[in-house]
Design brief:
The complex is a heterotrimer of chains A (316), B (474) and C (346). Chain A has 316 residues and is an alpha/beta fold. In chain A, 31% of the residues lie in helices and 24% in strands. Chain B folds into 2 domains: 2-53 and 250-471, MetI-like (MetI-like fold, Orthogonal Bundle), CATH 1.10.3720.10; 79-235, Jelly Rolls (Sandwich). Chain B has a 5-stranded antiparallel β-sheet. In chain B, strands 1-11-4-7 form a 4-stranded antiparallel β-sheet, with no helix packed on it. The chains are: A alpha/beta (316), B alpha+beta (474), C alpha/beta (346).
């Protein structure tokens, strides 16, 4: 069952210096229980996409085209009030980038966990508190953390709290935007284990946004690779990692240092484009080792290479 | 290359409406100040403002002329009639005729005859008389000048001989008896001079006589060389000028204009010096830390907690009392110095905390790693980061300085030789302007003080997005 | 026979914690953050020596100590200067090495010409108000290199070419905010190299860069090492990067080195439990990983550096903890082939 359907989504930022086409005609689906990894570097538009799915794009950004359908309901045209009451946090929730700072320093953890429950559902304080306890245990924390303040917790603990908060209303879809950036590698592994556990136990759908392809491999079933505001490759994790088709994906995979091999790394020359003025034709063409004439002129359409492996590249 | 950043900053600054208004206001202030500097003498205060005789021919305590528009021309205009040459020159007599057209019901404040530079070789006498529109003539006064080369100024009000002449005139022409003393006491000179008595209920009232009045000045002398340089008759009206006059007849518009560059000077000089000292202290304090920091910060604490106004009052008082001090130090300089001394501490404290966070940035560490000296780091790396904030603070300090000076003036503690808006307000209050309803003396200076403060506050608001990047409109 | 460019013995850096009034009044002893607590190592000429560890382990502080940006609380740092530098201040060269403690202030500037540092943050380490030219000119001016503007410009152009920011004319007038992360880091490297150093400390130089850019910068650093004859001390938390670029690796935990070895040996035959945990925690781009929980043999979180556990400081988290671990700190043992471990298991 398609839980989330995104079609031709466009999110632009209207700045004094020009229009930044952060997300430019993006389409994909997420099923229930599926984890979709969105990989991209800075300037690819992945964070904007994450915010856009919750209609939280900060001004001067706006959704200018396309639609987002969640469980059959089109949330792009929904009015703000209904969106707030029915959808945000109840159906879709988000773990923000740099979430360690997303906690209010003057309130206890317990109060912050209980607040969304009381706001969205008509339950008493006692029941809300019990649910908070349950969630906190689920993410591997001791229940007395509810009485503590954010500054008393370590980075890893705060991240777990953020995950608990995102799950507290048992949303159908959780968007995780670089959830492990500021964490040490050991804690990162533990948090990833937690995500795996949640995925398994709740059959939770997750959209996992990160620039670290290794992390995506750890958790995602399907992968969408973004570049300059567009999805340039999409497929199952196995396909994308083992038989990458787009030159960008190939380049990315070849540039990751591996722990157990001393293989020489290669990289992609050049820099990601300025989204106010993206290159004509295929946006990757200035950096592509296989660039052809047509790449400079026309944008490649998305082709299905079989087995739901989609690529936007003139090589195919 | 630097321009790029500057252009960006400029566009951010101009993106808000308040800053545009602020800049316009500031432009007006600068233009007005430039005008004053170019066209008015620099010692205007001493030479003119504090010199009451200069204003002798101005009406006292009258509102501006344009008020007449609203009052339908009710207020009498101030008229000065001048004659350089005698109208008639006969043997032994030189007659100066000055015609004045009176078409208002309002009587003049007073009328003054000015006989400038009377020269003669032997005795002459001067007769002053007036011919009314109804043909009646009143001989007002006879003067016998004693020395040659002197000027005579005859104010008809309160002059005994004039009152006598008027009393006799009343009796002769209208058979009305009012004693000389009563004329002087009840200030009936001009009612009689320019009115027709009307009896009503046993009271004698006067109806104003409108028409042409001919003021005659006769110079009788056998000396053919005897002459009067110029003859003036000043009919003191009830309105004057652009902004009216004060109790000494001083044209307020001049003083108000003069106030512009003074306000700018006080405001800008104080704020620039304060900001500079504060910035330096803050940077040194924040960068070096340790004992230097402690010393400077404690000093700031002390300075911040001393009340400014009582201290200022004290200093001004001391200077007033001490003649010698008064001559050597300009009180204006003292105000500026005291304002600076007590304002830099606030800036220093804020700059210091900014420096502390800048200091933690990696590019500072990088400079040190490359071998930069402390001085270099402070001035080439830290100070430029703090500069926009300093600039914004200067904008806030300026109105504060202007307002402080105005407050001091109001308390009578400022420099009386330089007319400022605060000074004008002070003399207004000292002369009961509030109770007398002399709004033109109070409201314009007050408004201008506010205006100058608002100018800088608006500019400071416009500078906020530069200082606080999160406020910027993207 | 490679000589040792840097020798560090029992290096310590403690930071005093501000005491509350009650602590002062009750004469409680001041507490310290033991950022670096007895670290000893050496670096061979021309090698890439990595210091690996998580945040708070003291690796960054060690880097700062080696570049003399901060002063140690205790211990010795000895640096072998080039012959040019040694001639200038030979009174302080003992046995071919300069002792940092003995180096007077006026010679520290000279030392900076030889020992440089590349910073982690490509955004924060460049003054946003200076052009690239100005940033690179600063070291030249400070040290009086280049007699006039033309000479300095030549040097700047050359170093920009070295870091492959070509053509240099295109970059010298740009401000940092007009450069990408990778380009900024190249400017960082250029700034470190323009004085012609021998020893370069690289403090997480690629951690804040995009993944596709990292490989390029790492390769650049390797090429520069060969072309300029540099020695690197490479600080990172990413074991995969360390594996790629380093010759020898030291693993730090809570201010001490717990294991040191050639990188291949360390990665393939780790000895210390902490090293094993670190290695098992590194994610790999293998999609079948998503079906497995990653076993990381470690318990709990890193304790605060103010309250270092007694005995072996890793013991509260160690899956193999024994009684002796709780009581005594294990000494560093050489298990052959320059593989050093500090653990009671051996």
């Amino acid at each position: 069952m398609s839980l989330l359907g995104v079609k031709n989504l466009k999110i632009y930022y209207f700045t004094l210096k020009g229009v930044v086409r952060a997300v430019d005609d993006v389409s994909f689906n997420v099923r229930e229980g599926e984890v979709l990894g969105i990989a991209g570097e800075s300037g690819s538009g992945k964070s904007t996409l994450g915010y856009g799915l919750m209609r939280l794009v900060p001004p001067p950004g706006r959704i200018v085209g396309g639609n987002i359908v969640v469980s059959g309901k089109d949330i792009t045209s929904m009015d703000e009030g209904t969106l707030r009451r029915e959808v945000r946090w109840k159906v879709i929730s988000m773990i923000f980038q740099g979430a360690l700072n997303a906690l209010n320093p003057v309130y206890t953890i317990g109060k912050q966990l209980v607040e969304p429950i009381i706001f969205h559902e008509n339950v008493g304080l006692k029941e809300a508190y019990e649910r908070a306890v349950e969630m906190v245990r689920l993410v591997g924390l001791n229940e007395d953390v509810l009485r503590r303040y954010p500054h008393e917790l370590s980075g890893g603990m705060k991240q777990r709290v953020m995950i608990a908060m995102a799950l507290i209303l048992r949303p159908k879809l959780v968007i995780a935007d670089e959830p492990t950036t500021a964490l040490d590698v050991v804690i990162q592994a533990q948090i990833m284990n937690l995500f795996k556990k949640i995925k398994k136990e709740f059959n939770q759908s997750i959209i996992f946004i990160t620039h670290d392809l290794s992390l995506i491999a750890e958790i995602a079933d399907n992968v969408a690779v973004m570049y300059a505001g567009k999805i340039i490759e999409y497929g199952t994790s196995d396909n994308v990692f083992n038989i990458p088709k787009h030159p960008y994906t190939q380049g990315l995979l070849k540039s990751i240092p591996r722990l157990k091999s001393k293989e020489k790394l290669s990289w992609i020359p050049g820099t990601p484009p300025d989204l106010r003025n993206p290159p004509t034709g295929c946006r990757f063409h200035p950096r592509c080792p296989y660039v052809m004439d047509v790449c400079r002129r026309e944008e490649p359409p998305i082709k299905d290479l079989g087995g739901s492996h989609l690529v936007a590249c003139w090589l195919y | 290359m630097r321009k790029l950043l500057r252009n960006e900053l400029l566009s951010i600054f101009l993106s808000s409406n308040t800053s545009k208004v602020g800049i316009t206001f500031l432009a007006i202030m600068i233009i007005a100040s430039a005008y004053v500097v170019i066209f008015m003498p620099l010692d205007f205060g001493l030479r003119y403002w504090n010199n009451p005789t200069f204003w002798a021919d101005y009406p006292k305590l009258v509102p501006p002329e344009w008020v007449n528009i609203f009052l339908g021309g009710k207020l009498l205009r101030h008229t000065i009639l001048v004659a350089e040459k005698p109208t008639l020159s006969l043997e032994g007599v030189k007659q100066y005729i000055l015609t004045y057209s009176h078409d208002s019901n309002q009587l003049p404040q007073t009328v003054v005859f000015k006989l400038n530079n009377i020269t003669f070789t032997y005795t002459s006498i001067i007769e002053l008389s007036v011919r009314r529109p109804d043909g009646r003539v009143i001989n007002l006064l006879v003067i016998q000048p004693l020395t040659s080369g002197v000027s005579e100024r005859v104010d008809l009000s309160g002059r005994l001989e004039v009152a006598v002449a008027l009393s006799r005139f009343l009796k002769d022409e209208f058979n009305v008896s009012i004693s000389t003393t009563e004329i002087i006491q009840r200030k009936l000179e001009f009612k009689i001079l320019m009115g027709t008595p009307v009896a009503s209920n046993g009271y004698v009232d006067f109806k104003t006589l409108r028409g042409n009045y001919m003021f005659n000045i006769f110079l009788r002398s056998d000396d053919p060389t005897a002459r009067i340089g110029s003859v003036e008759v000043v009919v003191f009206g009830w309105c004057y000028g652009f902004m009216g006059t004060d109790h000494l007849g001083r044209d307020l518009s001049q003083a108000l204009l003069y106030g512009f560059p003074v306000a700018l000077l006080i405001g800008v000089v104080t704020s620039v010096i304060t900001a500079t000292i504060g910035a330096l202290a803050g940077v040194v304090s924040g960068y070096y830390g340790g004992i230097v920091d402690e010393v400077i910060q404690r000093l700031c604490d002390i300075l911040n907690n001393i009340p400014l106004l009582p201290l200022l009052i004290f200093f001004m008082f001391v200077i007033r009392m001490n003649e010698e001090l008064r001559r050597t130090i300009s009180p204006l300089a003292v105000i500026i110095i005291v304002l600076v001394v007590f304002s830099w501490a606030g800036i220093a404290i804020i700059v210091r905390s900014m420096v502390l966070s800048i200091k933690a940035q990696q590019f500072i560490e990088a400079s040190i790693a490359v071998g930069a000296s402390s001085i270099r780091v402070m001035f080439r790396h830290i100070l430029p980061q703090v500069a926009p904030f300093i600039f914004a603070q200067m904008m806030f300090l300026t109105p504060s300085a202007i307002l402080s000076e105005a407050a001091l003036s109001l308390l009578g503690l400022s420099d009386p030789s330089i007319p400022t808006w605060g000074q004008i307000l002070e003399s207004a209050f000292a002369n009961q302007a509030m109770y007398l309803g002399l709004w033109w003396w109070i409201i314009p200076p007050g408004l201008l003080i506010m205006y100058s403060a608002i100018t800088f506050v608006f500019i400071a608001q416009g500078l906020e997005p530069i200082v606080e990047p999160r406020l910027r409109r993207v | 026979m490679t000589s040792k460019v840097l020798v560090v013995e029992d290096l310590r850096k403690y930071y005093p914690i501000r005491r509350s009034l009650s602590e002062v009044l009750t004469f409680k002893r001041g507490r310290y953050v033991r950022a670096v607590d007895g670290v000893s190592f050496y670096v061979n000429d021309g090698e890439v020596y990595c210091i690996v560890g998580e945040s708070g382990c003291g690796k960054t502080t060690t880097g700062r100590l080696v570049t003399k940006l901060i002063e140690p609380t205790g211990g010795v740092i000895k640096y072998r200067p080039s012959s040019a530098l040694a001639r200038v201040d030979d009174e302080f060269v003992v046995g071919g090495y300069i002792d940092y403690r003995r180096l007077p202030k006026k010679y520290v500037k000279l030392l900076r010409r030889e020992v440089q540092i590349i910073f982690q943050d490509p955004y924060g380490s460049l003054d946003p108000r200076q052009t690239v030219y100005s940033i690179l000119e600063e070291p030249l001016i400070i040290h009086g290199i280049g007699n006039d503007r033309k000479e300095r410009e030549e040097l700047i152009f050359k170093v920009l070419e070295d870091v492959r920011l070509s053509p240099p004319e295109e970059f010298i007038n740009r401000y940092p905010h007009m450069l990408s992360g990778g380009q900024r880091q190249r400017v960082n490297i250029a700034r470190a190299l323009i004085l012609g150093p021998k020893l370069v400390v690289a403090d997480e130089p690629v951690s804040m860069l995009d993944v596709s850019v990292r490989a390029e910068i790492l390769q650049l650093m390797m090429d520069l090492k060969i072309s300029k004859g540099l020695t690197y001390i490479f600080i990172t938390h990413d074991l995969a990067v360390a594996n790629y670029i380093c010759d020898r690796v030291a693993v730090m935990y809570l201010g001490k080195i717990v294991e040191e070895a050639d990188v291949l040996k360390l990665v393939n035959e780790p000895l210390h439990p902490y090293t094993k945990a670190l290695i098992s925690a590194v994610p790999e781009p293998n999609p079948s990983n998503r079906f497995r929980i990653r076993e990381v043999p470690i318990v709990g979180e890193v304790p605060s550096a103010t309250a270092v556990p007694p005995g072996c400081r890793f013991h509260p988290r160690c899956p193999y903890v024994m009684d002796v671990c709780r009581r005594e700190e294990p000494p560093i043992k050489d298990l052959g082939g320059s593989h050093l471990v500090a653990c009671w298991l051996y």
